[in-house]
Amino acid sequence: MIDNKSAPYGILALRVTTGALFLFHGLVKLFVFTPAGTAGYFESIGLPGALGYLTLLVEIVGGLALILGVKARLVSLALVPVLLGAAYFGHGAFGFNWSNPNGGWEYPVMWAVVQAALAALGDGAYALVPSNKQAPRVQYA
């Protein structure tokens, strides 16, 4: 059964947590690895360097949007391919387990599923700019 009173706060917790993680990862790419270093890494794994800059930007802007609740459903949906790309291109060769050297692919896939679930669930409580359509409310007798 879905508790319509507490569910928006559960969604809020997932939205803010994943937003903070995206923001953190984007800021690490910006300040630690640097944009040029991030682009160089993308090139080293056979991707266009420009995709590194785009990923950095998407992680920072997407993270902030999730934290604030700005079109969170759309942002969550847009982040799914970023995570699947990280799983395939960034971690796919290192096996399933995230504790493997260089990380495994299951962690970014799990986050992709979380983002897909958030896209399906809606914005949750305290969304600054809610998405146009909310998931239908489930009513039980």
From TrEMBL:
<feature type="transmembrane region" description="Helical">
    <location>
        <begin position="74"/>
        <end position="96"/>
    </location>
</feature>
<protein>
    <submittedName>
        <fullName>DoxX family protein</fullName>
    </submittedName>
</protein>
<keyword id="KW-0472">Membrane</keyword>
<keyword id="KW-1133">Transmembrane helix</keyword>
<dbReference type="InterPro" id="IPR051907">
    <property type="entry name" value="DoxX-like_oxidoreductase"/>
</dbReference>
<feature type="transmembrane region" description="Helical">
    <location>
        <begin position="108"/>
        <end position="129"/>
    </location>
</feature>
<comment type="similarity">
    <text>Belongs to the DoxX family.</text>
</comment>
<dbReference type="InterPro" id="IPR032808">
    <property type="entry name" value="DoxX"/>
</dbReference>
<dbReference type="GO" id="GO:0005886">
    <property type="term" value="C:plasma membrane"/>
</dbReference>
<keyword id="KW-1003">Cell membrane</keyword>
<feature type="transmembrane region" description="Helical">
    <location>
        <begin position="12"/>
        <end position="33"/>
    </location>
</feature>
<keyword id="KW-0812">Transmembrane</keyword>
<feature type="transmembrane region" description="Helical">
    <location>
        <begin position="45"/>
        <end position="67"/>
    </location>
</feature>
<dbReference type="Pfam" id="PF07681">
    <property type="entry name" value="DoxX"/>
</dbReference>
